[in-house]
Amino acid sequence: MPKTADIAIGPDAFINRELSWLEFNLRVLEEAENDQNPLLERMKFLAIFSSNLDEFFMVRVAGVREQAFGDGAPQDFAADGMTAIEQLRAIAVRTQELVARQYACLRDSIGPAMRESGFTLLRDADLNADQREYVDRFFRERALPILTPMACDPAHPSPRYHNRGLYLGTMLEHEHGLGPKQLFAVVQLPQVLPRIVTLPGSSPGEVSFVLLEELVAARLPELFGGFSVKSWTTFRITRDCDLELLEQESDDMLRLIEDRLKARQRGQAVRIEIAAQADEAIAQRILDDEDLRSGTEDPTDDGYNEVYRIDGPLDLTGLWELYKLPGFEKFHDVPYTPRVAPALRRRRDIFTAIAREDILVHHPYESFDSVVEFVRSAARDPRVLAIKQTLYRTSGDSPIIRALMEAAEAGKHVTALVELKARFDEANNVSWARQLERSGVHVVFGFLDLKTHCKVSLVVRNEREGLKRYVHLGTGNYNPATATLYTDLGLFTANVDIAEDATALFNLLTGYSQGHAWKKLVVAPNDLHRRTLELIAAQAERAKAGKPGRVFAKVNSLADHQVIEALYRASQAGVSIDIVARGICCLRPGVPGLSDNIRVRSIVDRYLEHSRMYVFGEGKKAAVYLASSDWMPRNFFRRVEVMFPVLAVPLKERILGTIVPMYLADNTRARVLGSDGAFQLLAPRRGDEPVRSQERFMEEASQAAAALKTSVDSGGESAKRTGSIKDRGGKASGSPQRKRGLKDRKGRS
Question: Which CATH number characterizes residue 257's domain?
C-alpha cells in the first residue's frame, strides 16, 4: 500500500458541492420515475424535486452568482478547482437537463398514469356546460374580487414580481378608450386561491380539474375590459433569499430579522421559468426588467443561462394539492402508525423510565409523541422547577411550544432558545418568540453570527435525593409534523455528566458562559471539528499498527475538505470506511491509492433520511455518537451543534447490531457512488433477498410493539390468576394493597 505522503490530494479528489447536490435531486426525481411507487407518491416526489430546486436557486445559486458577478466579490476557487462562473455554467447545463427530464416524466409517465387512474386535467375549451358554469361562477365570486390587472407602461412601472409567485404576462391591444393601443400587462395568481380547481360531477374515485392559470387566462378580457388578448404566458421569478446577517449590528435581533424578511421579496432575480411557447416579446420584456442572462453567444452575457423554458405547467409544487385530495388512499403508501418505544410503554411516568435507563427513540418508526410527552409532563409535574429548550424549526401549532407556555404560566422557570435565522422558518419563529415572551418564557435568540442548530431539552426536577436533571438530545427538530416524515434518532438520559454538559450549553447560549470542561458532549464551533478529525485519525493509527480500524458515518451532507482529507488518509492506512450520505458528498470513493477502502451510498425513500450517526471503531470498544450536525464547514464553524455519545450498552448494541447493518444491507432504495461522481441504484442480485431498510425498520418496530403487548397481556392474566388465591393471612391477594405491589413489581420488570 502506498504511503500517505506519496498520494497528492488535489482538486481532482473532490466532487463539486453544487453539482453533487443536483445529483441528490436527481435521486429524488428517480423516485418519481419509479413506477413501483404508488401514483400519488410519485407525484409527491415531482413536487419535492421542484421545491428542492427552488431553495437551491434561492440560496446556493444566489451565493455562487454573487461570487461571480457581485461588486468586488472574491474570485475564490471551489475545492474541486472550479471558479464561480464555471460552477454557474455547469449548474445551468445540468439543471436544464434535469428539468427537461422532470417534465418528460410528467408528460410521458405520470400524466398517462393519472388519466388511467381517474385524474383528468382539462383545458378551458374542453369544459362541458355544467363545468363551464361552475368555473365561471368560481371566477366571478372567488377570483375576480382578488385578482389585480397591472398594466406596464411609463405611467405604470413594471411591478416587482414576488419571489416564486406565479404570474400571467399578456400582450393586449385595442382601438378605442384609455391607454395605449398596444399594452403589456401582468396578473399575479394569488396563493390564497387553489392552484388545482376541482370540478363537480366526477364519479367516485375520479376527479376532473382545471389549473388556475388556465381558468384566469381564458377570462383575461374580463380583467382588461376593452382590450383583446394577442398572446399570454405564465412565468415565475426566483430571487436571492439568503439572509446575510453576519456583518450587521442591531440592538434588537427580532426586529432585524423582520426587516430582512421584508427585503427577501426584493432580492436579486436568479432564475426565470417561463412557458416554452411564450411570446418572445413578453419573455424579453421580463428578462430586461429583471436583468437576467439568457445564455446567448454575446460575450457580455457570460454564456450563463438563467432562463428555463418549461414545456408544461410551471411550479409543480402545486401538485401537493392533488396529493392531499381525500378519497384516493389506494394511490398512496400504505399508512404506518409510529409505535411507542418499548422502554417508555412499560412505565406510565416518563421520568421514572428515563431515571431507570437511557432510552433511544428511532423516528418515525417509534413515535415522536414521547418527546412531546417529555416536555408536556415537565410542564404539568409540580416537582419540575425548570425547563430549558432549543427551538430551530417547529410545527405551526406546536404542542411543545404550548407546553412551554403552560409551564411558564404555572410559575416554572422556562427558557427557550429560539433560532430566528432558521432558513425559511424565520417568520414562523418570530411569531412563536413573541407568543412565548407574552406567556412569561425567557426567550433568547442565540448569537448574531452563529445559528443555534443543536436539539436539546433539559428538565430540572426536585426529587427526594435532591435536584435531578433529565435531558433529551436529538438529531432532528422539535417538530411533530416533520417527525412523521423524517428519520431521526433521539436520546433520553439522566446521565450526570451529560446533564452537567447540557446545563453548561444553555449557560453558553443564554449568557456567553465559557470555560466549561465538556465531559461527554462535543460542541461546535468550539471542539467538534477538531474532535472529529482526532477520532478519524485514531482509527488510522490503529490500522497502521495492524489493528482493525473502522469509521461509519450517516450524514445529510459531507463537504468539509479537511474531514474528507482525513478520511482519505485513513483509507490509505487501511481503515474500512462506510458513508451513508443522503445529499451532498464531495468525497470520491474507490479511487486507487486514495480511497480504495471508502464506500459511499445514499438512500432516498418514503421518509427523508435525516439522522446523523457516527461510529469509530468496532465491537464493544466502538465509540458511537449521534449529532445535530453534518460534516460541513457551516456545521463545524458557523453553528452551535452538539455531538453526543451513546453510552448505554444495549443502545450501542442496537445501533451497531441492527440500525447500521440495515442501512448497509439496503439493496432496493440505496444508490452507490462511483469515483466519477455518479450514483447507481442497487438491485438485489439473483438469489439475494430484497432489503428495503425503511420497510424493515417499520416491521421491527411493529414486531417489538406486538411482543411487548403480548408480554403485558400475559402479565395481566398472571396477575388475575394470582389474585384469586388467598394469602396466608386469609386475605384475598387481589386486595388493593396486593394489586399495588404487583403493579409496582411489574413496572420494574
Answer: 3.30.1840.10
Question: Known catalytic residue: 453?
Answer: yes
Q: Are residues 513 and 586 in the same domain?
A: no
Residue type at position 185 = A
Alpha carbon distances (Å) from 425 to 393, 396, 418, 420, 422: 7, 10, 11, 8, 5
**In this structure, are 263 and 199 located in the same domain?**
yes
pLDDT digit string, tens, across residues 447-492: 878 889 999 999 999 999 999 999 999 999 999 999 999 999 999 9
Question: Sign of torsion, CA 314 320 322 323?
Answer: positive
Residue that terminates a domain, selected from 331, 366, 382: 331
Say which of 363, 453, 472, 529 is annotated catalytic: 453
Q: Is 204 found in the same domain as 74?
A: yes
The answer to whether the predicted template modeling score (pTM) of the entire model surpasses 0.85 is yes
Going along 484-622, which residue ranges are E strands? Answer: 486-493, 522-524, 550-555, 576-581, 598-603, 608-609, 613-616
In eight-state DSSP terms, residue 619 is: G
Is 88 within 8 Å of 65 (Cβ atoms)? yes
Distance in angstroms (rounded) separating the CA atoms of residues 199 and 724: 65
φ, ψ at 622 (rounded to 5°)? -65, 140
Co-location of 530 and 512 in the same domain: no
pLDDT tens per residue, range 404-425: 999 999 999 999 998 876 565 5
Using alpha carbons, select from 310, 313, 314, 274 the residue that is nearest to residue 290.
274
